[in-house]
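hey so i finally got around to running the thing on that chain from the lab meeting. sorry it took forever, my laptop kept dying and i had to restart like 3 times. anyway pasting the input first so we r on the same page abt which one it is
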Amino acid sequence: MAKTSAEGMKKHREKLKQDKIRYEGAKAKAR
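ok and heres what got predicted. didnt touch it at all, straight out
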């Protein structure tokens, strides 16, 4: 269970990073 939770957090963090990059890219394009 602990391993699954850790993997879930890792995936969640990766998704957040990708969303942030996409958000930054959208901001740059809007300019």
